[in-house]
């Protein structure tokens, strides 16, 4: 009877969805029934669920992570409220995680509940389709697109068109590995196109007294254990050739990317390795030849073109200030200075909501939805910084916005600054992670709040954390980066972090951080305190952390951390053999099967 009731509930939930979506969700429910009946094994189920955005969870066969694609970061108040309801009903912690690809993730969803979760996500207009697996992953875009004072043009409609074109496209269903695309229109770097398989940077040229839009397309970038900067495909790709060019890149990768089944070669099945093996000239020639063939057959062209629609200012009724005697507090002024950015449209601003540790609760989601609906007509984006961004907020409404966000704990200052630490989910849920990234991020928050509250001159260095070498936390492009590792001392496993310094995204280029130390996980907060104190004491006026690292070189920085790498025996310091975020447990290396290349 329980199964029948669940089936009826699912059928009601999928009513009105497109036929292909209904079919996918029914298939998912049928696969679960067959798995539980012993008709298929977990490996048979794995590939199907990954294509539909569902990962395995560390240490729990019947629990999953569900990843929601937020295409180019655009999300509505209604969708936030739907995600809040799902988090409350189907997850134990009632929170979601925002990723470095503008996605939103639910953790610890029971397997039997997944089809219903997928249905509710789809009913809101979102999808999990191809959020995982060997597919074109979520297409990311600058969260300030359309409102940035420095942008060349708004890349939103182009990111939207590319995302729609490749969703469920036959050629993207069984790629050698995952494939990532990003769009940037600003002079600043908000999505790091240089670390993507395709990074599209807006540009224009003059042709016969006419301004023509196009892109500088960079290809074959990536992070992971062996980071590689993307290289220029051609100086100018006209906007009308954007989709056929992207399709040509994907077709060449699909045809020539590494496909051998053993794990060693699967980890090399990314486009950056094809570029390394072939060289950029051969790869470029193959792609441009493929594009000519596509154009001759009209394949890859969208006959209706890409619709360019400019956002209209919201119609907002702004009452007097919250109270007659309201005056800006120091906390409000700090928040306004660090979390508010001017738009190119006069009188409007962008508000960055810092989602600390990359998480936000269901109550927080509802608060953001309510504030956005009231004060900016629901204009919301997610950012790769793991934050939420309100756009088109009337500047005169800022006191009201602050007053409404504050009770929900959503006015933490320092957005996109030192305190705004990026982190992957780590060993809390990921099967490949060695360390608990969340634990280190929490500990760093305490260090930064306690020791560096008055250090306003050094608020710009970035800190990024990954639980393993795969760089989901993007540690390679941080001023100070960490990734999880381990070793064994006299039979006792020791959790560690590799410390890197000097990384930075630079628009069309990228600097990768270099390793300077390997320390016990519990000493990682001291690494940050010491590095920032060293920087504060030795920097020149207005010298960035990257410039500081370049001027000093690696040797002085390594010497400053040298003693932290020394590890006493377990009997002398048993606390060092426990990971941050897992205080009650002796550390063990528990790696499950990686699913990114499944």
How would you characterize this protein structure?
With 598 residues, this protein is an alpha+beta fold. It folds into four domains: 122 residues, Sulfite Reductase Hemoprotein, domain 2 (Alpha-Beta Complex), CATH 3.90.480.20; 158 residues, Sulfite Reductase Hemoprotein, domain 1; 77 residues, Alpha-Beta Plaits (2-Layer Sandwich); 156 residues, Sulfite Reductase Hemoprotein, domain 1 (2-Layer Sandwich). It has 17 helices and 22 strands. The strands form five sheets. The chain has a five-stranded antiparallel sheet with strand order 1-2-5-4-13. A five-stranded antiparallel sheet has the order 3-14-15-12-11. The radius of gyration is 24 Å and the shape is globular. The protein starts with a helix and ends in a 37-residue tail after the last helix.
Oligomer type: single chain
Overall average pLDDT? 91
According to CATH, what is the topology of the largest domain?
Sulfite Reductase Hemoprotein, domain 1
Broad structural category? alpha+beta
Question: Which features would summarize this protein structure in a list?
Answer:
single chain; 598 residues; alpha+beta; Sulfite Reductase Hemoprotein, domain 2; Sulfite Reductase Hemoprotein, domain 1; 4 domains; five-stranded antiparallel sheet; globular
Topology:
Elements: H1 2-14, H2 19-36, H3 42-51, E1 54-57, E2 60-68, E3 74-75, H4 77-90, E4 95-98, E5 104-110, H5 114-123, E6 140-141, H6 156-166, E7 181-184, E8 198-207, E9 210-219, E10 231-238, H7 242-256, H8 263-266, H9 271-278, H10 280-297, H11 330-339, E11 340-342, E12 348-353, E13 359-361, H12 362-375, E14 380-382, E15 388-394, H13 398-405, E16 422-423, H14 437-451, E17 463-466, E18 480-489, E19 492-501, E20 504-506, E21 509-511, E22 514-520, H15 524-538, H16 545-552, H17 554-561
Parallel strand pairs: 6-7, 7-8, 16-17, 17-18
Antiparallel strand pairs: 1-2, 2-5, 3-14, 4-5, 4-13, 8-9, 9-10, 11-12, 12-15, 14-15, 18-19, 19-22, 20-21
Helix pairs in contact: 1-5, 2-3, 2-5, 4-12, 6-7, 7-10, 9-10, 14-15
């Amino acid at each position: 009877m329980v199964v029948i009731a669940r089936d009826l509930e699912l059928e009601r939930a999928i009513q009105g969805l497109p036929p292909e979506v209904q079919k996918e969700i029914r298939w998912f429910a049928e696969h679960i029934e067959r798995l539980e009946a012993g008709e298929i094994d977990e490996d048979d189920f794995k590939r199907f669920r990954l294509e539909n955005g569902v990962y395995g969870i560390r240490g729990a066969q019947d629990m999953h992570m569900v990843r929601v694609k937020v295409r180019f970061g655009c999300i509505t108040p209604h969708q936030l409220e739907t995600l809040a309801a799902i988090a409350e009903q189907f997850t134990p912690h009632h929170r979601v995680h925002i990723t470095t690809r503008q996605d939103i993730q639910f953790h610890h969803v029971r397997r039997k509940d997944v089809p219903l979760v997928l249905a509710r996500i789809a009913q809101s207009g979102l999808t999990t389709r191809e959020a995982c697996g060997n597919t074109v992953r979520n297409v990311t875009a600058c969260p300030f697109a359309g409102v940035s004072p420095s942008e060349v043009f708004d890349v939103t409609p182009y990111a939207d068109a590319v995302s729609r074109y490749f969703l469920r496209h036959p050629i993207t269903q069984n790629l050698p590995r995952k494939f990532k695309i990003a769009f940037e229109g600003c002079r600043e770097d908000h999505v790091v196109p240089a670390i993507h398989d395709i990074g599209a940077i807006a540009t224009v040229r003059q042709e016969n007294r006419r301004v023509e839009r196009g892109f500088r397309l960079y290809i074959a970038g990536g992070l992971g254990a062996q980071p590689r900067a993307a290289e220029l495909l051609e100086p100018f790709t006209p906007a009308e050739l954007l989709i056929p060019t992207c399709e040509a890149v994907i077709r060449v990768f699909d045809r020539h990317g590494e496909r051998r089944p053993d794990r060693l070669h699967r980890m090399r099945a990314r486009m950056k390795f094809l570029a390394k093996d072939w060289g950029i000239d051969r790869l470029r020639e193959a792609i441009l030849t493929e594009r000519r063939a596509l154009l001759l057959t009209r394949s890859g062209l969208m006959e209706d073109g890409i619709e360019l629609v400019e956002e209209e200012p919201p119609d907002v009724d702004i009452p007097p200030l919250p109270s007659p005697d309201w005056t800006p507090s120091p906390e409000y002024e700090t928040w306004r200075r660090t979390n508010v950015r001017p738009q190119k449209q006069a009188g409007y601003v962008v508000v960055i909501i810092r989602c600390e540790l990359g998480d936000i609760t269901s109550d927080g989601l509802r608060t953001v939805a309510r504030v956005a609906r009231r004060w900016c007509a629901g204009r919301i984006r997610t950012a790769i910084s793991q934050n939420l961004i309100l756009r088109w907020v009337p500047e005169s409404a800022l006191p009201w916005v602050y007053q409404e966000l504050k009770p929900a704990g959503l006015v933490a200052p320092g957005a996109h600054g030192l305190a705004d630490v990026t982190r992957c989910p780590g060993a809390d849920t990921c099967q490949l992670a060695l360390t608990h990234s969340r634990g280190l991020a929490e500990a760093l928050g305490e260090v930064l709040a306690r020791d560096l509250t008055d250090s306003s001159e050094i608020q710009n260095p970035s800190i990024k954390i990954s639980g393993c070498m795969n760089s989901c936390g993007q540690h390679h492009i941080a001023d100070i980066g960490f990734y999880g590792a381990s070793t064994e001392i006299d039979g006792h496993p020791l959790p560690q972090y590799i410390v890197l310094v000097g990384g930075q995204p630079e628009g069309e280029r990228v600097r990768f951080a270099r390793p300077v130390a390997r320390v016990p996980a519990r000493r990682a907060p001291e690494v940050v305190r010491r590095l920032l104190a060293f920087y504060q004491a030795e920097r020149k006026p207005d010298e960035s952390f990257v410039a500081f690292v370049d001027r000093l070189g690696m040797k002085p920085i390594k010497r400053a951390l040298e003693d932290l790498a020394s590890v006493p025996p377990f009997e002398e310091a048993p606390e060092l053999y426990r990971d941050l975020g897992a205080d009650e447990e002796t550390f063990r290396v528990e790696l499950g099967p990686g699913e990114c290349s499944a």
